[in-house]
Each structure stands twice: as structure tokens, then as C-alpha cells.
Amino acid sequence: STTLVSEMLEEVADRFSFQLQQRKIEIVIRVEKGVTGLLLDRDKIDQVLDNLVSNAIKYTGDEGAIRLEARKIEKDMLEISVQDNGIGIPKKDLTRIFDRFYRVDKARSRNMGGTGLGLSIAREIVKAHGGTISLESELGQGTRVVFTLPIQQEEEDEL
Ligand code: ATP
Ligand code: MG
To answer: How buried is 52 (Cβ within 10 angstroms: 0-12 exposed, 13-18 middle, 19+ buried)?
Structure first.
């Protein structure tokens, strides 16, 4: 059945509300007008969102900010982005960041927990749904991950 995109994003934020509060990280959600109900594999897309938001929290300092955005782009695609103003990723690591088990400089990720699988799983899920995922990052400035999903409207959908 259809998923309300705004509801889906609010619920991700809710799942992390304890960590967000503890770290005093602010989360802002923006859903473009006109993005309403979509047919999505909700469990899988939640897995992608949880991975991206957990990364954003892990690699952002206290009192940082995370922005979750959804909008329509050309050819009936939905674009969802997760942006943080955290530690960023060095240029030399960007090409390998979606590889399985790849983690930037063990020293900084050692005490963070995790296996380095999150982004590779996210990419597999997004690809399996006919979308793409990419990441841009500036060391010391922050990171933005963007993924797309084809929009399939349910027929006779009243939304
Ligand atoms: P897991 O997701 O399995 O718990 P992980 O978070 O280390 O472990 P990925 O999500 O695949 O693994 O991320 C790979 C690496 O990319 C991370 O170890 C981290 O170094 C870097 N990274 C990912 N997201 C961010 C981000 N938002 N800001 C800075 N670095 C990031
Ligand atoms: Mg991760």
C-alpha cells in the first residue's frame, strides 16, 4: 500500500530521537509540496534511511544539524537526501565509500561501532528498486547522501 513520504521521514527521526536529544543534534525535515503517497517497499527504504541517519549522527559533532529532504525530480523520480554538517569524508576515500567493509581511517571509526556495511547495503537496496545513490562530502564541512526512487503511484490512488 502507499506510504506517505513525510510520515516515513518523521518516523525515521522518531526512531533516533533519543540519540538526537542526547547529542543535541537538530533534525529538519523538508518535503516538497506535491510529494504525497507513494508505493514503496517500506521495510527496505526504512533500512536505507536508518543507515544514512545513523551515519549522519555518528559522524556529526554535538549540536550539529541533519536535514532530511524529499522532492520530485524529472522522469517521475523521488529524490531523498540526508545531509549533515559533521566531520566529512576525505576526497581520497570517496570512491571507496560504498564498498563493503570500507571505513574511513580506522582511528576515527574504531570507537564508533559498525562494520562498514551500511552504505553498501543501502546502495544494493536502492539499485534493486531502480534508483541511484551518491554521496558528496567536504572534509570538516559535512556530508550529503542523495538517493532516487522511481515513483509508482497506485492506481485509483485517492492521494
Ligand atoms: P555500519 O553502517 O555497518 O554500522 P559504518 O557506519 O562504519 O558501519 P558505512 O555506513 O558503510 O559503515 O559507512 C562507511 C564509512 O563511511 C564510515 O565508516 C565512515 O568513515 C564514512 N561515513 C559514512 N557516512 C558518513 C557521514 N555522514 N559523515 C562522515 N563519514 C561518513
Ligand atoms: Mg553506517
So the answer is: buried
Calpha distance 44→109 (Å, rounded): 25
Write the pLDDT tens digit of every residue in 103-141.
887 666 656 777 889 999 999 999 999 999 999 999 999
Which ipTM was obtained for this model? 0.98
Nearest atom in ligand 1 to the alpha carbon of residue 82 is 27
Taking the C-alpha atoms of residue 3 and residue 1, their distance in angstroms, rounded to an integer, is 7
Mean pLDDT of the chain: 91
Element (H, E) at 27: strand 26-31
Does residue 31 have a pLDDT over 60?
yes
Q: Please classify residue 44 by burial: count the beta carbons closer than 10 Å to its beta carbon, then call 0-12 exposed, 13-18 middle and 19+ buried.
A: middle
Residues with CB under 6 A from ligand 1: 51, 55-56, 59, 84, 86-89, 97, 102-104, 109, 114-120, 143
Rounded CA-CA distance 132/81 in Å is 12
